[in-house]
Design brief:
The protein has helices at about 1-20, 25-50, 60-80, 85-90, 95-100, 105-110, 120-135, 145-170, 180-190, 200-205, 220-225, 240-265, and strands spanning about 55, 60. With about 280 residues, the chain is mainly alpha-helical. The chain is globular, with a radius of gyration of 20 Å.
């Protein structure tokens, strides 16, 4: 099982490298444009923090760490392909049938198809370098335990975003026409935060770490890892706990929807194959 999954990951990586290295100019252009695009998006909040010295209880270097953490999460999400983002389209348009007839388990197909690790390596590298740099500037006591907690939270943030997107994509099993708009709106709500949420009302903070878990993708884990004032010791485990709960909910909802789909198929199509 693991060997076949790794083989598919390897095939995707080789195809990705072959496309990027087709020409030297293409490889250089890809790396530079990806780096400039994402570093530019991170620059505005960093400049604000540098200008004022801090954003709330967050010093400028802590803001850099939070943005770098979010960049690492988003780069891994992008490298895993478009399956979480476009699940509602596949279900609603009947494209899930193309996956169900393949001689592979559905989970493996969804996990490995579209795997493009080298498309987003500049962003991942940028995130990891800035996390290391900002941690050193903040004099964080980097220990094996701290690094393990960082890795657990990074993985948990990825699971949270994936589960959130899949959960909303599953709406297409019951509402194939409206689910694309609903899922697109939901995916637009969750994303990297550019500023810490500490100054926001408590009620809004709760919403942004539960119903719309944007705060779990960078803000809350970073606050816990850097021990920013206002948090507590348990904050470091809230994102892993949310990942388990939301992940289990998404899996259960997907299985329920898949059972429904096996009986009904996509109701978005007429008998002649035209989409409603």
């Amino acid at each position: 099982m693991a060997a076949e999954t790794l083989r598919l990951f390897g095939a995707g990586a080789r195809l990705n490298v072959a496309r990027i290295l087709r020409t030297r100019e293409q490889a250089i252009a890809h790396t530079l444009t990806d780096f400039i695009w994402h570093s530019g998006a991170m620059l505005a909040p960093i400049l604000v923090a540098v200008r004022f010295g801090h954003i709330g209880p967050w010093p400028a270097n802590a803001v850099v760490f939070m943005l770098a953490y979010g960049a690492a999460v988003s780069s891994v999400m992008d490298a895993l392909g478009d399956s979480p983002w476009h699940m509602s389209q596949r279900v609603g348009r009947g494209q899930l049938d193309h996956l169900l007839v393949q001689p592979q388990p559905l989970w493996r197909i969804l996990l490995t198809e579209g795997f493009t690790p080298f498309d987003f390596w500049p962003v991942l590298t940028l995130g990891l370098v800035l996390m290391a740099w900002s941690s050193a500037r903040l004099h964080v006591q980097v220990s094996p335990g701290w690094l393990g907690l960082l890795g657990v939270n990074l993985l948990a943030s990825i699971v949270v975003e994936t589960a959130f997107l899949y959960a909303w994509g599953c709406v297409a099993f019951w509402a194939p026409r409206g689910a694309e708009e609903i899922s697109s709106a939901a995916s637009g709500l969750v994303g990297d935060l550019s500023f810490p949420l500490d100054s926001m009302p408590r009620a809004l903070q709760v919403v942004l770490v539960s119903a719309v878990p944007s705060g779990l993708l960078s803000w809350l884990p970073s606050r816990a890892l850097l021990q920013i004032p206002g948090g507590c010791a348990m904050d470091a485990w809230l994102t892993p706990l949310a990942a388990m709960v939301l992940g289990a909910f998404a899996v259960a909802l997907f299985r329920l929807g898949l059972g429904h789909y096996r009986h009904t198929g996509s109701r978005r199509y007429t008998d002649n194959g035209h989409r409603r």
